[in-house]
Amino acid sequence: MAKITFVQPGGASQTVEAREGDSIMQTALAHSIDGIFAECGGAMMCATCHCYIDDDRTGAASEGEQDMLECAEDEVRDTSRLSCQITVTEGLDGLIVHLPVPVE
Ligand code: FES
């Protein structure tokens, strides 16, 4: 188990227990975290699982992930990631995931 903290744009945060092997996206859905929609179910085809992670432990986004991030409706930053592409490991315990400002 790893504890993952999701932070909403307004600063509210929720720390949850994540199962190893699940993605950050699956963890968010399992805990009804606002801001992660995952319309494609993790197939890297939608960018509705966009989040910001400033933590070297998650590694770099793949080329395909970077391409899909360009389709994100929210503001894309240097720390942008697709949460479906990050697998939870014990080594990610304490990870902080920021959610984007919702697009109206
Ligand atoms: Fe669609 Fe991540 S869930 S790209």
Automatic annotation (TrEMBL):
InterPro entries: 2Fe-2S_ferredoxin-like_sf, 2Fe-2S_ferredoxin-type, Adrenodoxin-like, Adrenodoxin_Fe-S_BS, Beta-grasp_dom_sf. One of its GO terms (molecular function) is metal ion binding. PROSITE patterns: 2FE2S_FER_2, ADX. It holds the Pfam family Fer2. GO terms for cellular component: cytosol. Its cofactor is [2Fe-2S] cluster. Residues 2-103 form the 2Fe-2S ferredoxin-type domain. Keywords: 2Fe-2S, Iron, Iron-sulfur, Metal-binding. One of its GO terms (biological process) is P450-containing electron transport chain. Belongs to the adrenodoxin/putidaredoxin family. This is Ferredoxin 2Fe-2S FdxB. It comes from Donghicola eburneus.
